From TrEMBL:
Gene Ontology terms, MF aspect: transferase activity
Domain Sulfatase N-terminal: start-end pairs: 194-477
Keywords: Cell membrane, Membrane, Transferase, Transmembrane, Transmembrane helix
Protein name per Swiss-Prot or TrEMBL: Phosphoglycerol transferase
Membrane topology of the entry: Multi-pass membrane protein
Domain of life: Bacteria
Chief place where the protein resides: membrane
Keyword Transmembrane recorded: yes
Region (Disordered): 519-539
Recorded GO CC terms: plasma membrane
PANTHER family the UniProt entry points to: LIPOTEICHOIC ACID SYNTHASE, PHOSPHOGLYCEROL TRANSFERASE I
Transmembrane regions listed in the UniProt entry: 15-32, 114-135, 147-163
Amino acid sequence: MPSRFLPPPLRQPRWWALLVIGLWLGFTVATLTRLPTWGLVPVAGGWLLLARRWRWGAPPHPHPVRRVWPWSLLPIALWGLYVYLADSFGMVDLGAVFFHLQAGMEEHGGGERIGAAILYTLSMLLLLVSFTWLVRVDHRWRLAERLLALALLVGNPMLYGIGQRGAAIVTEDGAWLERQYVEPVILEAPRDPPNLLLLYLESLERTYADRERFGDAYAHLEALGEKAVVFEGVRQVDNTGWTMAGMIASQCGTPLMPAGLLHDSQFEPLGKVVPGVDCLGDLLDARGYSLTYMGGASTRFAGKGVFYRDHGFDRVLGREELEPRLEAPDYVNSWGLYDDTLYDLTVEEMRRLERQDGPWGLVNLSITGHAPNGYPARDCRERQGEFDGVDILYSVECSAWLARRLVERLEEEGLLENTLVVVASDHLTMRVSAWEQLVAGERDNTFMLLGEQFEPRRLDVEASTMDLLPTVLEAMGFVIDWHRAGLGVSLLSAEPTLVEEHGLDTLNARLREETALQERLWEGLAPPQGPPPPPEPVVEQVVETPEDQALEAPEELP
């Protein structure tokens, strides 16, 4: 509202309201397309030119101002939420949103996003106020904005995704993926089963290997790959694009479909994570492996600790367990331990495992490449120079160097004898400073195998992270049924993968319709359907006494 306390240029709200709306329009277009951030300026300018041409906010024949509330406020707010998620993560994965809401988000390390979320909220409130003013002042907008509200609701990708999942309940075929699923079974094991070291490199996709776009950021993993079997073309299926989903895809052979209404208590964190399927840990635990999970972040975030404890792991070590062992307690980031510290503790754990009898497996999750900017370790800063706090390629190079240094250190100590080393990205990265370059072409995940039994080579495949489970099992010398486990197919075999047979688009479309596989994943968590069955009537048992028998007339013998 105009105020006599404001300077004259600010007493007319029209252009301020139109500017706010124009900037939000420009920001939305730039976020949801491949326009650079500065692309919002011409979009906002075009909006203001249209506003000037059609005299929006100052109609030539004004009607009385009406104090109405626009129907579009809620649809605009929902679009604001979608744009925020897209700007924060690059790809809006509703599965990730629903899963984290149910699995729990305590002890997360995204504290730096809180400031951005506050700014988003304030700017959204300013947008809603500006639009409300425009509708109240300009009767032409009052007439059109109900249609606008409908268009915004129909066109919101987030609501469209929710509608698709709702439609899956009544789809004619909600079991297509379930029919492709093969129960992971080890038919035969080698006499001397190898140990397993599985290194997940947070968000370190193989796309970074393109030197024309990313220079030498991936060079240390390329060097490591010179003595490994390197798989090129490992794509990302929907519901596998965040850390827990990526680990479950590669260890269980399935996408992580959130529990949804199958969750036994909608207001409590999940007590179990995908209890209905056997995963890598279950299979190795049944073969006598000692299993350890190590990560610098809290295992309480997103059900990580619950998953590993319930699927065969003896030791689950996260921030809570590892931070007290630090020589420098202050050397942590918002998520937890830096990777140079984590890898030192990993070496100690492997020494402990080597002293035990029997095979072992260790799964390790890094943090250096985490979006949006990464968490480069002190050792990298001493080697690479000062970090500007933004450039993700600095963090990618750091993560690759730390991983290579760890493998070489373990080789020098003799800790990798009869050990399969798997280096993999947990998922494709989310929105980072190199986002426009990343999405400019096809993207694939890191996946390589290092072991004495392998000749270095590169395999061009069309696969997904769900194919890692059977591939790792066969690389360890286990014989599995039809080279398959879960929805995955061993990439060391000649069998076609689901991506090769059907393509990513078909898999993702089928995934949106699937209900049977979701029920399998969360078997045992569904609340009982309908009223409990009535108790069976108690039938009184009659026992004859000796007196009863004496009263009976003896049978006459023939």
